Amino acid sequence: MFYLIGLGLCDEKDITVRGLEAVKRCERVYLEAYTSILMVQKEQLEAFYGRPLIVADRDMVEMESDAILESAEKVDVALLVVGDPFGATTHSDILIRARSKGIATEVVHNASIMNAIGACGLQLYNFGQAVSLVFFTESWRPDSFYDRVAENRNLGMHTLLLLDIKVKEQSEENLARGRKIYEPPRYMSIPVAISQLIEVEEKRKEGILSPETTL
Questions:
Q1: Do residues 53 and 2 lie in contact, with contact meaning Cβ atoms separated by under 8 Å?
Q2: Which residue, 79, 58, 59, 76, is CA-closest to 1?
Q3: Which one, of 52, 30, 39, lies nearest residue 9 by Cα?
Q4: Strands (E) located in the chain
Q5: Strands across the sheet with 77-81, in order?
Q6: Is 167:34 a contact under the CB 8 Å cutoff?
Q7: 3-state secondary structure of 158
Q8: Which residue among 18, 68, 94, 122 is the one 20 to 30 A from 57 at the CA level?
Q9: What is the DSSP-derived secondary structure letter of residue 31?
Q10: Which element (helix H / strand E) includes 115?
Q11: Do residues 15 and 118 touch, judged by C-beta distance below 8 A?
């Protein structure tokens, strides 16, 4: 059996009872560690779950999923995901791969930012398209998210903006040269996000992200 288990948003105690029971049955337990972050270290999770965790980085989940699914038709294997398992398309892909191999699967859902955002007082029914804001570089400053925000605003909807996370990323030079040298982890802060939003508004000049009325 291959389990895809959501961990929730905060710490080791956010896992559901169903999820914890599944983890304790598994021969191998992987922790996906690049699409989101928990507020605690891996060691705390291991102590609470009573199982060792294998960190699964981007390369393993996206390029080497067969290693995760190995023998899952005979033994129980789990992939733990921060938030809800379907918060990223990567997790849908590995589930499809498992089913295509004839491996039995089970998904254990949990809270994610997609519903926890209601804690800010805005009604979930009034959110439109969620969009991602990536770190700008000297040569890449995408602004396609602006159109989605504009569409939401024109419909009277709120926008959930997901801020970029860079974990085990390579520089453009190292990537081009095929060198497995990784940059330090980076997590976009609110000030950086605001500065990028203002930059795009100054470029587009449509009044969608005006600091005086929106930010």
A1: no
A2: 76
A3: 39
A4: 2-6, 28-32, 54-56, 77-81, 105-108, 131-133, 161-163, 165-166, 186-187
A5: 54-56, 28-32, 77-81, 2-6, 105-108
A6: yes
A7: strand
A8: 18
A9: E
A10: helix 113-116
A11: no
Q: Looking at the chain, how many residues does it have?
A: 215
Residue of 194, 203, 191, 190 lying closest to 147 (CA atoms): 203
What does the pLDDT read at residue 176? 79
Tokens of 40: 């605690």
Cα(132)–Cα(33) distance, rounded to whole angstroms?
Answer: 18
Residue type present at position 76 = D
106, β-bridge pairs = 3
Closest CA to 115 of 13, 8, 35, 5: 8
